[in-house]
Specification:
Shape: globular
Pfam families: Pribosyltran
EC number: 2.4.2.8
Radius of gyration: 16 Å
Helix content: 10-25%
Number of helices: 4
Strand content: 25-35%
Bound molecules: xanthosine-5'-monophosphate, magnesium ion
Subcellular location: Cytoplasm
Distance between the termini: 20 Å
CATH class: Alpha Beta
Number of strands: 9
Strand order of the largest sheet: 4-3-2-5-6-7
Order of helices and strands: EHEHEEEHEEEEH
CATH topology: Rossmann fold
Protein name: Hypoxanthine phosphoribosyltransferase
CATH architecture: 3-Layer(aba) Sandwich
Pathway: Purine metabolism; IMP biosynthesis via salvage pathway; IMP from hypoxanthine: step 1/1; Purine metabolism; GMP biosynthesis via salvage pathway; GMP from guanine: step 1/1
């Protein structure tokens, strides 16, 4: 695992089970509707890759890149679009695919931005959710795992761009960020 990680929080099989469960819920809810999956770069890359393949329905994909954290571990509340969607989402059933919701600041900004583009529907699927997310009024329909308030990396999640390619989710050893 290496000296920079403290422990494994969610292993590969747990992640696969969580993704399968989310896909089954989404499949059931979107029966008869074509989905547009909007992935939030870069963290949601792994969730998008696995979730989209676990769905049994037609789905298209688009991506947005926004910045809120810089290289640190605290949300700044300042959100900037680094890459916008390629296409118009008006009239489409949009499902935002997120890696993690922490303070919820990033997501609430993103949702109001997307809502102003008049999609037919707008829902959120996040792999992970931290306890602070409960403080914000966001309706997140699909949640993979509620996790403790620790900084996690792996399966798309980074610390200063490292650890994204880990196939599991682990907690960071304190010496890495303190
Ligand atoms: P907020 O606080 O706005 O944060 O909900 C959401 C974004 O912050 C990043 N984030 C993390 N990234 N490990 C990470 O690698 C974490 O534990 C963590 N918590 C928040 C992430 O980019 C997410 O989209
Ligand atoms: Mg990040």
């Amino acid at each position: 695992m290496g000296p920079d990680l403290e422990r494994v929080l969610l292993g590969q099989s747990e992640l696969a089970e969580g993704i399968a469960r989310l896909a089954a819920e989404i499949d059931a809810d979107y029966n008869g509707r074509e989905l547009l999956l909007v992935g939030v770069l870069k963290g949601a890359v792994m969730v998008m890759a696995d979730l989209s393949r676990a769905l049994h329905r037609p789905a298209t994909m688009d991506w947005m890149a926004i910045s809120s954290y810089g290289a640190g571990t605290k949300s700044s509340g300042v959100v900037r679009i680094l890459k916008d969607l390629d296409a118009d989402i008006a009239g489409q059933h949009v499902l935002v695919v997120e890696d993690i919701i922490d303070s919820g600041l990033t997501l609430s900004w993103l949702l109001s931005n997307l809502r102003s583009r008049n999609p037919a529907s707008l829902e959120v699927c996040t792999l992970l959710r931290k306890p602070d997310a409960a403080k914000v009024e966001i309706d997140v329909k699909y949640v993979g795992f509620d996790i403790p308030n620790e900084f996690v990396v792996g399966y798309g999640l980074d610390f200063a761009e490292r650890f994204r390619n880990l196939p599991f989710i682990g907690t960071l050893a304190p010496h890495v960020y303190s």
